[in-house]
Design brief:
The complex is a heterodimer of chains A (311) and B (334).
Chain A lengths: L8 H30 L1 H18 L1 H4 L37 H37 L1 H15 L3 H12 L3 H28 L2 H8 L4 H9 L4 H24 L11 H8 L7 H29 L1 H5 L1
Helix pairs in contact in A: 1-12, 2-4, 2-12, 4-5, 4-7, 4-10, 4-12, 5-7, 6-7, 7-10, 8-9, 10-11, 10-12, 11-12
Chain B lengths: L1 H28 L4 H6 L6 H11 L5 H13 L13 H36 L4 H14 L3 H15 L22 H8 L4 H36 L2 H8 L4 H38 L5 H11 L2 H29 L6
Helix pairs in contact in B: 1-13, 5-6, 5-9, 5-11, 6-9, 7-9, 7-11, 8-9, 9-11, 10-11, 11-12, 11-13, 12-13
Classes of the chains: A mainly alpha (311), B mainly alpha (334).
């Protein structure tokens, strides 16, 4: 306290300002957590997502086998609890004798990585482009929005498929394609939010105080548009995982022997009738991951959307 | 209204041009030499290359090439398939009814199940029914449908032996296509069992394709209904002593369905993306499978034409939805 004793009137204001800013931040976080906690599904989703994240990070420590090593003599072994199965391969093995559980554990890395990279790219590009469109308006805005309309005129998976055909199949190209397909949503959201905020008094005050354009866009306006962006980012995260798995399933995403979940399903297709486990588990992994993220997304929306709070 | 229509059409034109530029650029962006690719020949001499290049018009300025391409599109010429040599538009038109039939059945299922579920969930807000419907809807919304399709095949075709695994109708039946819709054509053919066969082929793909739209529609209907139910005029209707059935069915529903119609319209893109996966799983001979096969066969003129045709369909449907929205929503007057 002694250190913080203000010496001048000016300093008092600054100190109080700092104090209240952090207090407000804490209060906002507490409020967010209060509303997020109300949604039991969201908390469950967050826990499941946390577990998947840990599994992905510590995959080499958890996985009982190497995900790409093929064990001769262990082809299409059923899961442990079924006749013919063994605890050596808890979820059974695939057609070339690879442990399915280990492949699923390593697969979590790819799915989360895809989600993270895709969301990072599409949020960064989408927010910057949306800010520019919403802030400057005029012909530039029209041009940008028409461009987004064009991207949105194609079904996302089809456009991603065609982009991968151009770039060549592979996980990296699939991620680039999906990011490109998802970013118009961020552009639209950011633009709409910027247009709503731009003429508010606080922005005007900052402008009068001499804030530069960059400061106005990124420091003054952007932080007030984050709530819908966070919700959209969550949705995009799960969409990216689904689309990447779909591309993998179509043979256009990660290539074998990569233990990516969609690619695993593609390899398992011919054994649909003979070995249910090679088909069931990878899809279940996708579903659980996507579901956990969507549950969190619902909770985030409830906690961040002030309109819903009042009702 | 007419003015609004023209304004929307005016916005559609630059979008259409942009979409056509993307389709045009597609072939030229692909790795490798487009002339060689279009010719479908592996090794060609420089003379042959020059000849083909001239024949296909690749030696002209790029703007002229594009205008030529655009002119072709406007007159219905989308080029010929590299593999089958047939016009792309003909192939598209012969396969489109299969996709349309599947999509219509899927959206019908999604609406007929999703809307009532959403309404009941909203009316019984917080009940176990509401919670389980919304839980299932979220699972449906998160579903990797290509896996869902395989699961249904394992269970209904494998374990129960109830439904066929692929195709549109059993090979036993043959009749010329009249409408292109297998359900109608099989009835028209008068062959015993044909309709049943067509129906049994349609069930699983329909369920798979309907899953995500159904979940979205149920969620949207519920939230739209909840919003309307808290409006003053609904309270007034209740206070007047109208029976709940009348308040919900007449007063609330009519306004709640307005955003739902938009949601249904927006599902067309979801359906087209879903058709790619669903048709691949069930070997359904529609445009989704055609596109995937063409990508793998490197039949790039087909991919180019299909891309453009699908985008045009989506743009037109979106326009229709906007117009319909104006018609059913008296608050919007153009």
């Amino acid at each position: 306290m002694a250190v913080n004793t203000p010496k001048t009137a000016d300093e008092t204001v600054v100190l109080q300002g700092e104090h209240s800013a952090s207090a407000i931040r804490w209060a906002m976080l507490a409020e967010f957590w209060y509303y997020f906690r109300q949604n039991r599904g969201a908390v469950l989703g967050a826990i499941v997502f946390g577990i998947i994240l840990l599994v992905a990070i510590f995959a080499p420590l958890i996985a009982p086998h190497d995900p790409v090593i093929q064990v001769r003599g262990a082809f299409l072994k059923p899961p442990a609890w079924q006749a013919g199965g063994s605890w050596e391969y808890i979820l059974g093995t695939d057609a070339v004798g690879r442990d399915i559980l280990s492949r699923l554990i390593y697969g979590a890395r790819f799915s989360l990585f895809v989600g993270l990279v895709v969301v990072t790219i599409s949020v960064t590009v989408g927010v910057v482009v949306g800010l520019i469109a919403g802030y400057f308006r005029g012909p530039l805005d029209t041009f940008i929005m028409r461009l987004m309309d064009i991207i949105l005129a194609f079904p996302s998976l089809l456009l991603a498929l065609v982009l991968v055909a151009i770039l060549g199949p592979g996980l990296l190209n699939a991620m680039i394609a999906i990011a490109l397909v998802l970013q118009p949503h961020f552009v639209r959201l950011t633009r709409a939010a910027v247009m709503a905020e731009k003429n508010r008094d606080y922005v005007m005050a900052a402008r009068v105080a001499g804030a530069s354009r960059m400061r106005l866009m990124f420091r003054t306006i952007l932080p007030n548009c984050t709530a819908p962006l966070i919700v959209q980012a969550t949705l995009s995260f799960s969409n990216a995982i689904l689309d990447a798995a779909a591309l993998g399933f179509l043979g256009m995403g990660a290539q074998p022997p990569t233990p990516e979940w969609g690619t695993m399903l593609a390899e398992a297709r011919e054994f649909v009738m003979r070995a249910w486990w090679v088909v069931t588990f990878p899809g279940l992994a996708i579903l659980i991951t996507v579901l956990a993220i969507n549950l969190m997304g619902d909770g985030l929306r409830d906690a961040l959307d002030p309109k819903l709070k009042r009702s | 209204m007419l003015q609004f229509l023209f304004r929307r059409l005016a916005v559609l034109i630059p979008t259409f041009i942009g979409v056509s530029i993307i389709a045009f650029a597609f072939i030229r962006l692909l790795p490798g030499d487009p002339v060689q690719m279009m010719a479908g020949e592996r090794v060609i001499s420089p003379e042959r290359h020059a000849e083909l290049s001239q024949q296909l018009g690749f030696d002209r300025p790029i703007v002229v090439q594009y205008l030529d391409y655009l002119g072709g599109i406007v007159t219905g010429d989308f080029g010929n398939s590299i593999v089958t040599k047939r016009p792309v538009l003909n192939e598209f038109l012969s396969l489109f009814p299969a996709t349309l039939e599947l999509s219509l059945c899927a959206i019908l299922l999604a609406v007929l199940v999703g809307v009532p579920l959403g309404i009941i969930a909203a009316v019984k807000r917080g009940s176990w029914f509401d919670q389980s419907v919304m839980g299932v809807a979220l699972v449906g919304y998160s579903m990797p449908i290509f896996w869902w399709g395989l699961l249904l095949i394992i269970f209904f075709s494998g374990v129960l032996q109830l439904t066929p695994v692929s195709g549109r109708i059993s090979l036993m039946y043959f009749f010329p296509p009249v409408t292109g819709f297998m359900l109608i054509d099989s009835l028209l053919s008068g062959q015993a069992g044909a309709f049943k066969s067509a129906l049994s082929h349609l069930i699983l793909p329909t369920i798979v394709l309907a899953t995500i739209p159904l979940a979205v529609i149920a969620r949207q209907t519920r939230s739209a209904m909840l919003e309307v139910l808290s409006e003053d005029y609904v309270r007034t209707a209740r206070a007047k002593g109208l029976p709940p059935r009348r308040v919900i069915g007449l007063h609330a529903l009519r306004n709640a369905l307005i955003p739902v119609v938009t949601t249904i319209g927006l599902q067309i893109g979801v359906l087209m993306a879903g058709a790619i996966l669903t048709e691949t799983i069930f070997s359904w001979p529609g445009i989704g499978k055609w596109m995937v096969d063409s990508v793998f066969r490197r039949d790039y003129t087909v991919v180019q034409g299909g891309l453009l045709l699908i985008a045009i369909i989506i743009m037109v449907v979106n326009l229709l939805v906007d117009v319909l929205y104006g018609l059913i929503n008296p608050r919007i007057r153009y």
